[in-house]
TrEMBL record, chain A:
Its cofactor is Mg(2+). S-adenosyl-L-methionine binds at residues 75, 106, 127, 173. Pathway: Cofactor biosynthesis; ubiquinone biosynthesis. Belongs to the class I-like SAM-binding methyltransferase superfamily. UbiG/COQ3 family. Residues 23-42 have a biased composition (Low complexity). The keyword Methyltransferase applies. Gene3D superfamilies: Vaccinia Virus protein VP39. This is Ubiquinone biosynthesis O-methyltransferase, mitochondrial. NCBIfam families: UbiG. O-methyltransferase required for two non-consecutive steps during ubiquinone biosynthesis. Catalyzes the 2 O-methylation of 3,4-dihydroxy-5-(all-trans-polyprenyl)benzoic acid into 4-hydroxy-3-methoxy-5-(all-trans-polyprenyl)benzoic acid. Also catalyzes the last step of ubiquinone biosynthesis by mediating methylation of 3-demethylubiquinone into ubiquinone. Also able to mediate the methylation of 3-demethylubiquinol into ubiquinol.
Automatic annotation (TrEMBL), chain B:
The gene is COQ6. It comes from Coccomyxa viridis. Component of a multi-subunit COQ enzyme complex. Residues 27-274, 340-383 form the FAD-binding domain. It is an enzyme of class 1 (oxidoreductase). One of its GO terms (biological process) is carotene biosynthetic process. Keywords: FAD, Flavoprotein, Membrane, Mitochondrion, Mitochondrion inner membrane, Monooxygenase, Oxidoreductase, Ubiquinone biosynthesis. NCBIfam families: Ubi-OHases (TIGR01988). This is Ubiquinone biosynthesis monooxygenase COQ6, mitochondrial.
Length: 291, 456
């Protein structure tokens, strides 16, 4: 479900509707899209429908997810370092995540999942779009080394939580800005993490700049994204994200801005967190009671 | 029959590197061509802790040569100039010690002058604060040193020979069509033994007539210089530490130290003249070389540029026939480039991607620079969980930087070649003035030098 690289374009979608500007409660079970996907999700149903329409273009680097392709090495590097830090491992080695279980929430076509699998992790990718899951599973088949370390499920974080699943690390990249109940979503991420494990979240900040870049620039002026791809009001500031996750029982390790050079498409880490940013957390080794 | 198979297996177990009998079904990197550039890549992957465990297959028609004691025999005809940048790649790969002097020769000076006495430029390593300008080594020595390093990497590197590429299947790729989801199937190579293996990345290191390039349907551009290069081994009275190059009316002649008091002659000339020179006895050929190096006019003070020229000119040494050396041979001179170096799951390196005029001895160094760049790109990919055969990775981190660099060198060598094309009169004088200006201008001279040495 990841999508939110601020400048990713979306040629495939022309008819997506604007959803309500205020976050909705998580009772998505009654909506049309939720009927074809799993129930009990905090993912907004109309958001799901948007991504369903463009799922076949997940692996086209020149397609609507182009910015995710170019961002992928950077977020992988950040996640690798955060997970290695939490698990006491050296990061710049062959398969530093070997034998660690990682959950990729909102895995989409599997871009992030495959990268983490190549670093040795045993990755479970979940997404509310059945099409995306099918694309991800098919794509992974080409390389046995990737296929053996990726497992995709059409499910939500909440469903996995109900199944009692736990992972050494949980990542949610470019997805939280599309969920309808952010606190509940954050609580799921933490609950799915083993004590001592790490959580990595990347998303778009809610600033004047992100409004200018993601909404006015990308959607209204440049037409890179169909209108309604993002609702600026749903964007989450680093402070809010930190508060939600910490309330759920994990502590912040570090964060970074991620900035794309619009001319080269090249992403770099930056102190500037006004648009895209990524943040890592660690769940304390001692089991803590979640609020 | 069964007996024969059994013996084959037994033999294969005794071989230093894996034989065709024990190939994996999937390799990370399959290198077609185990020559200097292909072997250098297989070695260079060992220099980084993140790439040293990549499973590598090297396919070649001939087995790896064994390393030999620093030779007393005359050197072989085929030699390469190694820039400090290439030497650094070999040092990092652990192959340099087996090709360093006395197996090869260092040169500390380079002198370029022309036949008409119009100009001279002399470079010294000390000018840029380095101990040497470069080395000259027999290809056989480079190959054997790389082979020794490959043997030390036998736990991850399989070298299969004699074998050749028959088929190559790459993921579907239609750059002009917006095809949506790109295929990421692994590449498959078929060998003449009938075996097939799959690979995440296939590297074409199979030379200027690359079969990989042909099978991948990559287009090339090329032109012939309508000249041939004569190579020969000669001897000098004393060990020589200068790379000498003189522009004759018919083309450039280079005299390079190889080992001990042996030197190598690379003489570019017209096709007819090459035929005549090739037919000469070694003694008669040596006389021709001396005539070419010492005849004509030695550089005089340039009237257009008083004070700048000829001060540093040093007369070249007299050469003698090298007893026991192979007689002189010749090869055609051409320029060739591949429009693209990469496709999904494919990269071309070395002469498979570009062939330059041998004028400045840059050819194989461009190939070694390809190797350094590609190995770094693969290390980056492994570190960040990228597919090593991903087109975007190969384009951004290998093709783009190498293509612009190689194009720069190809253009520079081609225009140098054209400036120094056989001619008399005014152009020759201007050329001489150019050399003198170059010799007089420390800054430009140092820049050119550092560039040629691969340290710029």
């Amino acid at each position: 479900m990841s999508m939110g690289a601020a400048l990713s374009s979306s040629r495939g979608v022309h008819t997506s509707r604007r959803t309500h500007d205020v976050p909705q409660p998580s009772a998505a079970g009654t909506s049309a899209a939720a009927a074809q996907g799993p129930a009990g999700q905090s993912m907004d149903a109309q958001e799901v429908a948007k991504f369903e329409a463009m799922a076949s273009e997940w692996w086209d680097p020149d397609g609507p997810n182009g910015a995710l392709h170019t961002m992928n090495p950077l977020r992988t590097q950040f996640a690798r370092d955060a997970i290695c830090l939490a698990h006491g491992r050296e990061a710049r080695t062959v398969q530093p995540l070997r034998d660690l279980s990682v959950l990729d929430v909102g895995c989409g076509g599997g871009l992030f999942s495959e990268a983490l699998a190549r670093l040795g992790a045993d990755v479970t990718g979940v997404d509310t779009s059945a099409t995306a899951i099918s694309v991800a599973a098919t794509h992974a088949q080409a390389d046995p080394a990737v296929a053996s370390r990726t497992h995709y499920q059409n499910a939500t974080a909440e469903q996995l939580q109900q199944q009692g699943a736990h992972f050494d690390a949980v990542v949610a990249s470019e997805v939280i800005e599309h969920v309808s109940n952010v606190p509940e979503f954050c609580a799921s991420l933490v609950a799915l993490t083993r004590p001592g494990g790490s959580i990595v979240v990347s998303t778009i900040n809610r600033t004047n700049r992100s409004y200018a870049v993601a909404i006015v620039g990308a959607e209204q002026i440049m037409g890179l994204l169909p209108k309604g791809t993002h609702q600026w009001e749903r964007f989450i500031t680093p402070e809010e994200l930190q508060e939600h996750i910490e309330r759920a029982g994990a502590e912040r390790i570090g964060d970074s801005g991620m900035v794309m050079n619009p001319f080269t498409g090249h992403w770099t880490f930056s102190a500037d967190k006004a648009v895209n940013y990524i943040m890592s957390f660690r769940k304390p080794a001692e089991q803590q009671r979640n609020p | 029959m069964r007996q024969a198979v059994k013996e084959h297996l037994l033999l294969s177990y005794r071989r230093p590197l894996s034989s065709a009998a024990s190939l994996d079904s999937i390799y990370d990197v399959a290198i077609i061509g185990g020559g200097m550039v292909g072997s250098a890549l297989a070695c260079a992957l060992g220099r980084s802790p993140v790439t040293e465990e990549l499973r590598v297959l090297v396919v070649d028609k001939v087995p790896l040569p064994e390393i030999s004691a620093p030779g007393a025999d005359p050197p072989e005809l085929r030699v390469s100039t190694l820039t400090p940048a290439s030497v650094r790649l070999f040092e990092e790969s652990g192959a340099w010690d087996s090709m360093a002097p006395p197996r090869s020769a260092a040169f500390r000076h380079m002198q370029v002058w022309d036949h008409g006495g119009n100009g001279c430029v002399r470079y010294s390593a000390a000018t840029v604060g380095l101990p040497v300008m470069g080395y000259v080594a027999e290809n056989r020595v480079i190959q054997a040193a790389l082979g020794q390093t490959l043997r030390s990497r036998r736990s991850v590197v399989d070298y299969v020979s004699p074998a050749s590429l028959q088929t190559l299947t790459l993921p579907a790729y239609a750059p002009d069509l917006h095809s949506g989801m790109q295929s990421n199937e692994l590449a498959e190579i078929g060998l003449d033994s009938g075996q097939t293996v799959r690979a995440r990345l296939v590297v074409g290191a199979d030379g200027s007539r690359s079969r990989v390039r042909e099978l991948a349907d990559l287009r090339t551009f090329s032109w012939s210089y309508h000249q041939r290069g004569i190579v020969a081994t000669v001897r000098t009275q004393h060990p020589n530490d200068t790379a000498w190059q003189r522009f004759l009316r018919t083309g450039p002649l280079a005299l390079l130290p190889v080992r001990g008091s042996y030197s190598n002659v690379v003489w570019s000339t017209s096709v007819a003249e090459a035929g005549r020179l090739q037919a000469l006895t070694p003694q008669a050929f040596a006389l021709e070389v001396n005539q070419a190096l010492q005849g004509g006019c030695m550089p005089a003070r340039n009237p257009l540029l008083p004070g700048a020229s000829s001060d540093s000119f040093i007369p070249p040494p007299t050469v003698y026939a090298a007893d026991g050396a192979a007689s002189q041979q010749s090869f055609p001179l051409a320029l060739l480039g591949s429009g693209r170096y990469v496709r999904p799951r494919l990269a071309l390196v070395g002469d498979a991607a570009h062939v330059v005029h041998p004028l400045a001895g840059q050819g194989v160094n461009l190939g070694f620079a390809d190797v350094g760049q590609l190995a770094a790109a693969l290390a980056h990919a492994v570190e960040t969980g990228r597919d090593i055969g991903d087109l975007g990775l190969l384009q951004e981190m290998y093709e783009a930087p190498r293509q612009s660099e190689n194009a720069r060198m190809m253009t520079a060598l081609d225009s140098l070649k054209r400036v120094f094309a056989p001619q008399d009169g005014l152009l020759a004088s201007l050329r001489g003035l150019g050399l003198d200006l170059l010799n007089g201008s420390g800054v430009i001279k140092r820049q050119i030098m550092r560039y040629a040495m691969g340290v710029a």
